[in-house]
Write a structure and sequence with these properties.
alpha/beta, two-stranded antiparallel ribbon
Amino acid sequence: MTRATWGCVTPPLTNFGSRSGPFTRHVRTSKNHFSTAAMLDGDRRQYHPSLEVLGGGLDSYLPVFKTLNRPYDAFPVVGWNRHVETIFASLFRSVPDVRLRRECLRTKDDGAIALDWVAGDDRQLGVESPVLILLPGLTGGSEDSYVRHLLIGARGNGMRVVVFNSRGCGHSPVTTPQFYSASFTEDLRQVVAHVANRYPNANLYAVGWSLGANILVRYLGQESHACPLSGAVSLCNPFNLVIADEDFRKGFNIVYDKALAKALRRIFKNHKLLFEDIGGEFNIPQAAKAKSVREFDEGLTRVSFGFKSVDDYYSNSSSSDSIKHVCIPLLCIQAADDPIAPYRGIPREDIQLISQLEKECAEYVVSSQENPNCLLIVTPKGGHLGWVAGPESPRGAPWTDPVVMDFLQHLERERSQVFASSSGSKTVELSTEGLHHMKCG
């Protein structure tokens, strides 16, 4: 089996019908704008009016979801308040027990990447089994409950799963005076290249949460037509970091800001010796005592990655600018009440349309066409990394997990059919120059 790359403007996979199939009416509520779709064809699935579903990939992907025709029912009390739901999911969601095998890799700049694979998969899965790369959120890793639940679900559906722990996260080693950032995609690029060369006949997929989703979507946009992944999912993506930063410093959100700043300080403290003699614009005392994520980013992150200011960093690290360049199937799931990934920051226009320059009568004009690669699902509730709803609530897998698996399984089925009829296509070649195995200390 070999991987395929889908073009930006070529509808991904099989078209299930034209835009004239469903009719759509728009209902405006006091807080959010939701679309209600009714399918004229009784054989097609429809999505429930409690959900907002849009995107150029609507016709292609909507029929594959088994649960979107049901109402989104937030778990009583817990799911009625976005802050309660966010905190409950973080503290009380169960953490499945999984045996993981760590692989540490050396990057081009002598940094360290920690990959956690499910132990025993090499014996139980074939070399052509699809591979799923998971990217946790800010300061997150393979121990997080939301990561573990999707890992279990994907593994149960025959996927080989690997968790990408960013530098310093998930107890991964830090060997250089540089962590990671919302803008930095090079580590992910090297991880994808490493996994692709290790399993050259397997289709690769990726799922990212929160900051991990922002990094993933930026990577997809940068790779564009050359992206080696066969599909991706973005969950709780802040998208527009300027807007997210504005909201992060308001009201109850300050609680999250302080909690994440504390986690960043803890990672920094564990590796502070690496930063002792560093010069330039770094403000190490500010980073070491940061009371907010913004203070930490101003003192350390934005300098590490060459930005003039923290506002410059946020403005130029937002994945909202990358959506229009994504050329593989991408599912984005957001919660309308997410306190950390604001509803108003979702790049709806780019998820639905692609703008491009076309020459007409010796002049260039901007034209728009449907973006066939993207689909957006917005739930009315969910908080941040919460989604305490569905059959496994309140302490089991979040509502999103079955939706994500429906999408990934559909892509894998379609690709298996394509590859069965075009076995002569070539495998995508990727360079792993500068990426070497290293021991975990």
